[in-house]
Write a structure and sequence with these properties.
The complex is a heterodimer of chains A (about 325) and B (about 500).
Chain A (H helix, E strand, L loop, with lengths): L1 H35 L6 H26 L7 H15 L4 H26 L3 H20 L9 H5 L4 E2 L2 E2 H19 L1 H11 L1 H6 L4 H27 L10 H11 L11 H20 L7 H19 L1
Antiparallel strand pairs in A: 1-2
Helix pairs in contact in A: 1-12, 2-7, 2-8, 2-10, 2-11, 2-12, 3-4, 3-5, 3-10, 4-5, 4-10, 7-8, 8-10, 11-12, 12-13
Chain B lengths: L5 E12 L2 E12 L3 E6 L5 H9 L6 E6 L2 E3 L4 H6 L2 E4 L11 H5 L14 H14 L15 H13 L5 E5 L7 H16 L3 E5 L3 H7 L2 E6 L2 E7 L5 H9 L17 E10 L3 E9 L3 E5 L6 H9 L6 E6 L2 E3 L4 H6 L2 E4 L3 H5 L6 H12 L8 H14 L16 H14 L4 E5 L7 H16 L3 E5 L3 H7 L2 E6 L2 E7 L5 H8 L2 H9 L1
Parallel strand pairs in B: 3-8, 3-9, 6-7, 7-8, 13-18, 13-19, 16-17, 17-18
Antiparallel strand pairs in B: 1-2, 1-4, 4-5, 9-10, 11-12, 11-14, 14-15, 19-20
Helix pairs in contact in B: 12-13, 12-14, 13-14
The chains are: A mainly alpha (about 325), B alpha/beta (about 500).
The complex binds adenosine-5'-triphosphate and magnesium ion.
The site of magnesium ion (MG) has 6 residues of chain B, from helix 1.
Chain lengths: ~325, ~500
Amino acid sequence: MFKEQAQMKDKVRFSSSSSMLLPLVFIIVVIACAAVSPMFFTAENFRNIIVGSATFGILACGMTVVLVSGEIDLSVGSQIALTSVVMATLAPKSLTLAIIGSLFVSLCIGLINGILLTKTKMPSFVLTLSTMGIVRSLALVIANGQPVYGVPRSFANLSNAVVGNVPLVAYAMIVMYLLTWFFLKYTTLGRSIYAVGSNSESARLSGINVNRVKIATYAISGFVAGLAGLFYTSYVTLGLPDGAVDYETQAITAAIIGGTSFFGGEGKVFNTFLGLFIVGMVKNILNLMGVSPFVQPIAIGVLIIIAVGVRTRKS
Amino acid sequence: MNNGKTILEMERITKEFPGVKALKNVDLKVRAGEVHCLVGENGAGKSTLIKIMTGAHSKSSGQIRVNGIPVEMNGPQDGKKLGIRAIYQELDLLPTLTVAENIFVEDIPKTKLGLVNWSKMNLKAQELLRTFGVQIEPKALVKDLTVAEQQIVTIVKALSQDSKILIMDEPSAVLTGSELERLFGIIRELQKQGVGIIYITHRLVEVFEIGDTVTVLRDGENIATAKVEDVTMEQLITWMVGRELGEQFYKETVDIGDIVLEAKNLTVTGQVKNVSLQLHEGEILGIAGLVGAGRTELLKSIFGQYQVDSGSLVVFGEECHFTSPRDGIAKGLGLVPEDRKNEGAVLCRSIEENISLGVLVKRKFKFLVHFPKLFQKAVELANYVAIRCHSLKQEVGTLSGGNQQKTVLAKWLASESKILLLDEPTRGIDVGSKLEFYKLMAEMVRAKKSIILVSSELPELMALSDRILVMSNSQVRKEFLAGEATQEEILEYAIPQELKESVRAS
Ligand SMILES: Nc1ncnc2c1ncn2[C@@H]1O[C@H](COP(=O)(O)OP(=O)(O)OP(=O)(O)O)[C@@H](O)[C@H]1O
Ligand SMILES: [Mg+2]
């Protein structure tokens, strides 16, 4: 009995120490950046970091949900491109229609991903690798390979808008993270996503409809990609069929630096948030120091290896 | 108690898997308030039958009636709606979630707004765990628990909701002593409430302790259903195996040679405390103890899986400091682990590949593998331990529980280890195969191999061991020679001091 209690304490201590790791790294990065460059700790610079990370940031919410379910969605970058094209094409007719239309398109792509996944039982990496290409190609075909002009000024201005000296996108991002956190922690569907990611056969035996949960997960991922696409469109003020390349990897990076497991069942969206900003700040400080953008991926790569390596070695 | 009305009837149930007919026209009736035991050899179809009952597997043909009404089940949800609940043989838990979430995954406590009510969930989980008398933290992650603790969580999970029929597939396999008593207490309680219970076990004594009715399956057929008071142990075994078995244990006396392995004051912080032991050539050294006594940990620290903090280990006259299982294997050690699903078998690969792994690790660096030769060895060993399968190419994950265990065993036999560390090797193995396995052990010691045997089944341990060490609280408390101690005396040393005091105090 005593031994059991002692073990229990060990466990609690261990988990609390590993959950403190990330905030600690976050703080260290902030301090280090501030020490390196006097320009880092300015409102202007923070605004840059936030605006620069907003699209990935929103995307990373959806990606965390997908990763927790034990799957991956590589098609979200292409989905952003497609939504931006749809948005820019429809906007001259009606802005409302354009917004609803582009969200609807991405929701449908998510649903199709989910349905194909559950019907074919193929690995999600392979499936979404294919849809990534298909969706990208769709965007290029619709736009005829050209940027689509047609995003109204009013909508484009949203990305620069500031409320009380804080960019609007910052609020939007915070709301997104709060919603995702709430969804994952307090809704039955959210908990079912963890259950399915943890062990889908056990989840099935416990009466969870695994296929439905997977389809819902991809629908969410698609919808979130649509939202990210709207921000992206507002930011670049165009429909860009060849834009947002690599955005899925950025979202995955934020999530895994935040400790989301690649094998499902584990992950916290707030940690994704921290991961996002750790990456954002590292990129930012390298820019401020005038380091070549070609070198930056090296820094990010090393960061991932350290962040994930420390965690996997511990367990 | 046997007069309750029939709540579940299964009629002419047949189930075909690709390549095997797992069930052939099986009939089964369960009454309210009855404990219906289901026994049979490994691969007889017990787990398959109960999975059809819960809707986890679809049947190929046959009919199921609940309270006289025919039902069709398309998934585990349907079984649950009818009040049919199961504790499956393979622990069906969610490793990365908390204990409380696992217990309530089917029916998460919610607030008025329909949101997950975490505080209520943790509180209710705590209460339920308490009624079982265990100290498991509801917020702990399931993957951090021991196998026995996980088993308790599955039991508590099944009890968390009302059910009309509760199925338990070898729940006792990993439990010992007091936990088993509590499980039986709970079963009797449920029985009084009119729940029909189906209880699967390979420990046949339990049938006589807890059962009202017993059904024997053999090769997917219902061989007999009888009242427990009307049958004898011998009769049951004959039904199961299809012939008379004679002895239940098998032991040969062989000459015991020199010391092959000696541990002095072996300590792994929090796991093993100051353990000293000697193992001789041709000897079977038994280790007794309750769940959590540190037996598994001791084996793992000898094997090199745990880093030893202090103390020394001498193997074949050479002082050893293993830093990984590879080192242990290189010195001629082999470990058949307790947790076969995670540590023993590669579930998604074939039987022959799994067994061959044992040979592969022993080979010195040779680049090319001669598969025919490798697999021929596997075939021999698979026959030897009598794995029931339709082909050696079958994935281990689709074997019955006991046959998975035999595969792991065969793997370590293939490695030709000189010192075998066996952790609950007969768990989940049927009586007939157990006897085969005991003969195999006898053959190994005759071939001058040595064995350390950890087993929670005291009769087995007492019959096979030349010496028995009793562990509790990570320490060795007592050593007995073969035939020197009774079961009670061994238990006396196995129960930790604090536990005895707390029992006395309450
Ligand atoms: N998914 C599957 N695919 C193919 N064959 C299977 C599958 N599941 C079970 N079988 C086969 O069905 C037969 C019956 O297996 P089952 O698990 O019901 O046995 P059991 O009586 O529970 O044995 P044990 O005592 O070892 O648990 C075995 O031959 C097994 O290999
Ligand atoms: Mg079974």
